[in-house]
User: Which sequence fits this backbone?
């Protein structure tokens, strides 16, 4: 099975109605039908999902959210459910981003519960994993990744095959210091091995962390890098589309 490349933008907590409209209209205009070989997705803050639905419906660009609740509905003030995301046309949701893990205490168990809720609602979860700089320096990358993925790998192969995994080394996020293609590939190959053992060898594995128009092509040459999760560069239409075209 050949895997379609996937390039996702994570806007994080950036944007406004005006800025988003400008960015999205430029993406639509410049994209045309040029990248049918690549799935292109933007993940916006929750309040802007209606705007994405309005502006992107009928375009080749898909949209998603950056987080969601593990619960279906109920007394969970401030939370947003998977079915609410579906109401706004989302097909994708980022889960377990390192900022959620580090700043909001999300555990592997919580990320698993959110993943199950997303799958149940028919969303594609993009589960983020990655080691910190200290863990990297202590050669703990594989054990950290294994820990983060272990519970997910116990999902049935049918469910697991509906996931996307994003490897985002924390030390590469927002630092301008991307992992080298070889460094990223070695971790992706390790993740691929785990997925193979779990009978889901074709799950797409994205790399994230300071991806830009200059380094994207070399990253994408690696056999187990199936696309990118892009932060800062996804806020500039030209940069984001250059990455998608790389
Ligand atoms: O966290 C990221 C995407 O989820 C990566 O962010 P940067 O591309 O800004 O390093």
Assistant:
């Amino acid at each position: 099975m050949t895997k379609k490349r996937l390039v996702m933008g994570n806007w994080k907590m950036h944007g406004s109605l005006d800025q988003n409209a400008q960015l999205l209209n430029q993406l639509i205009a410049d994209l045309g039908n040029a990248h049918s070989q690549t799935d292109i997705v933007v993940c916006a803050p929750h309040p802007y999902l209606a705007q994405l639905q309005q502006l992107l419906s009928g375009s080749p660009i898909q949209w998603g959210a950056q987080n969601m609740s593990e619960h279906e509905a109920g007394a969970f003030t401030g939370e947003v459910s998977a079915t609410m995301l579906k109401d706004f046309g989302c097909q994708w949701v980022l889960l377990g981003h390192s900022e959620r893990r580090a700043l909001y205490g999300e555990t592997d168990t919580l990320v698993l519960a959110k993943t199950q809720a997303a799958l149940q609602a028919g969303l594609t979860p993009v589960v983020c994993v990655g080691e910190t700089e200290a863990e990297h320096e202590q050669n703990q990358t594989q054990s950290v990744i294994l820990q983060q993925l272990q519970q997910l790998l116990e999902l049935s192969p049918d469910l697991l095959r509906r996931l996307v995994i994003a490897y985002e080394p924390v030390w590469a996020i927002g630092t301008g210091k991307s992992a080298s293609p070889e460094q990223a590939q070695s971790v992706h190959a390790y993740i691929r091995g785990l997925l193979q053992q779990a009978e889901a060898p074709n799950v797409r594995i994205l790399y994230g962390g300071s991806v830009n128009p200059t380094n994207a092509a070399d990253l994408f040459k690696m056999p187990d890098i199936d696309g990118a999760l892009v932060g800062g560069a996804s806020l500039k239409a030209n940069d984001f589309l250059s990455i998608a075209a790389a």
In short: The mean pLDDT is 96.
